[in-house]
Amino acid sequence: MTATIDFYFDFGSPNAYLCLRVLPEIEARIGKTFVIKPVLLGGVFRATNNRSPFEAFAGVPAKLAYEKLEMERFVRKHALVKFRSNPFFPINTLAMMRGTHAAIKLGVIDPYIEAVVSAMWEQQLDMGQMEVLAGVLDAADLPTADIVRESQTPDVKQALMDATQELIDRGGFGIPTFFVGTEMFFGKDRLRDVEAAFVAQSA
Questions:
Q1: Residue 128's Cα: distance from chain center in Å?
Q2: Domain limits at 90?
Q3: Which residues contact 33 (CB under 8 A, 6 or more apart)?
Q4: Is pTM, for the whole model, over 0.90?
Q5: 79: CATH
Q6: Terminal CA-to-CA distance of the chain, rounded, Å?
Q7: How many domains does the chain have?
Q8: Angle, in degrees to the nearest 10, between helices 144-151 and 154-169
């Protein structure tokens, strides 16, 4: 049986964006093995008493400066020239993440992720506004009305809650988080380890 890699993400994480942009490089080497697991980062933070680095290290400017440096290094390494910080950050991602589960249900997850992640971290749009999100989906020729409708259904809302709880139950505390089998890896800087673990487990 071919191994897979679970990838828990939320559009509100810039590091999740960076991972999404690098996944094709990894999949070209090891195959299309990543299983997308959309979660609500705010729910994860509340359940695990965690905070974003921006909040957690607000009083440690040298730490924040180093976090920024590491991000810049990652961007340069992978030539992610389209990446832009979002001036509206932090953004409430509830509608986007429910929309992700709706897109999975409707069979349009790949173009949905591409449209939303580009709008969030390349076009610098205020994706917490429903009208902005709808405009992005319209521009991408996605079934906006269907996605919005499905986003409000009990089963899609429950799917997002279940995925979020699943990450918490597996010991996750933030985004991006990967699981290769039962082995957890946190953060964009662990992608090399994720790939190595996958190769080892698939041998």
A1: 15
A2: 5-202
A3: 2, 3, 4, 5, 27, 198
A4: yes
A5: 3.40.30.10
A6: 11
A7: 1
A8: 70
